[in-house]
Amino acid sequence: MTEKVLIAGGGIGGLASGLSLARAGAVVRVLERAPALTEVGAGVQLGPNVTRILSAWGLSSALESVAVFPANLHARSALSGELLATLSLRDMSARYGAPYATIHRADLQTLLLQAAEVQGVVVRCDAHVQDVQNLENAVAVALAHQGSELTERADALVVADGVWSVLRQQLLGDGAPRMTGHLAYRALVAQSDLPVHLRTQDVTVWMGPRVHVVQYPVRGGEWLNVVCLTEGQLEGVALQELQGWNLRKTAAATRADLQAALTGACPTLHALVDACGEWRLWPLCDRVPMRGAHEHVQGRAVLLGDAAHPMRPYLAQGAGMAIEDAAELGHQWTAQAGRDVPMRLNAFAQARWQRNAQVQARAIRNGDVFHATGPVQWARDAGLRMLGARLMDLPWLYGHRHGA
Fold it and tell me: pTM for the complete prediction?
């Protein structure tokens, strides 16, 4: 019998899991709350652990048409501008069997949507999943769609509705995400609008005290994605405002925030930030690293991506772990085909939760390293000068293969 799976959320994790499950033989429908599938202007880095999965799904050519494959990852001092170390990315395929890519988030979403629809996945927008109930032989989902209240049953529900997941609270009841005290200012700028010396096809991380800036090309290299991550709290901001990727401030207020965060930074970094026009503010919220398989699965409901394990961006693996989740879910759906759905989902949870917890913890630690001050900052810079790529390469992360 062919099982029916509903997916709450049409973001990266939801579409990837829809594609993966459809490839495994399930009948899949994605329920997206928004009136249309849209993505904010932000970039995504995809390590070999992720591009390997996209390749296995037959998406290499589609990825090549919209992504960039940078040659290098540079680590620089935000204060002096000194090049501390460089990791070669051009030979990732030789080392890990897949390349390192940078891509606009909307391009990645479109790529996954098109591939999912080819596999027969149906995407319904303006469909807000409001409630989930585990029954003996099914999962019941209550949703609002175009003004109507509906109830649907399926063999499983994938919860991929993000860090502020309402469904997670129904299933786990573990409270709201926590404020990290970190803020991300994001901008996209056309490379043609930049002075020649600021244009690049590489990834660069500028590390300073309590702040760092990351830049990399997207959209075939024609645009530069720039993110300034700094420490601080937002005063007088309502909880619902924290749930968006685009908390607006006036241009003057944003400029003042960035100037304060980059006090003492080198002229080149100031010039890059000044060249970016419109900035979007994203207050970072997360959860403590996963503590068990129960945070991935409750009965016939499986949580993945940010709904299960929101990541701080300091390892560039938020989208990556959602795609890894999706690949493992499809793998277990096939590998455990002779078992009932809850057992298949539990096999997925056991295969994934420790990996996700490890990546969450390392991302938090990376943030401390990137934003170090005093002796720790000195030791970080000295270590990068001496060991360079050996510190920046991450075989445990990039060499991971799902189902192994």
Answer: 0.95
- How far apart are alpha carbons 226 and 218 in whole angstroms? 10
Residue range(s) defining the domain that contains residue 328 = 4-176+287-398
**DSSP 3-state assignment of 298?**
strand
- Asked if the structure places residue 48 within a domain, the reply is yes
**How many domains is the chain built from?**
1
- Annotated active-site residue 398? The verdict is no
Give the number of other Cβ atoms within 10 Å of residue 243's Cβ.
15
Q: Which residues pair with 206 in a beta bridge?
A: 76, 213
pLDDT tens-digit map of 72-122: 999 999 999 999 999 999 999 999 999 999 999 999 999 999 999 999 999
| Other beta carbons within 10 Å of 195 | 9
CA–CA separation, 219 and 170 (whole Å): 39
44 membership: H or E segment, kind and range: strand 43-46
Residue 364: how many CB atoms within 10 A of its CB? 17
**Is 110 among the domain residues?**
yes
**Catalytic option among 185, 216, 314, 398:** 216
Three-class SS state of 273: helix
In this structure, is residue 344 part of a structural domain? yes
In angstroms, the CA 83 to CA 62 distance is 34
| Torsion 387-391-395-396 (CA) sign | positive
The pair of three-digit structure tokens given for residue 388, joined into one six-digit string: 């360079």
**What CATH number is given to the structural domain containing 142?**
3.50.50.60
Q: Is residue 244 part of a domain?
A: no
Strands 301-303 and 223-231: unpaired
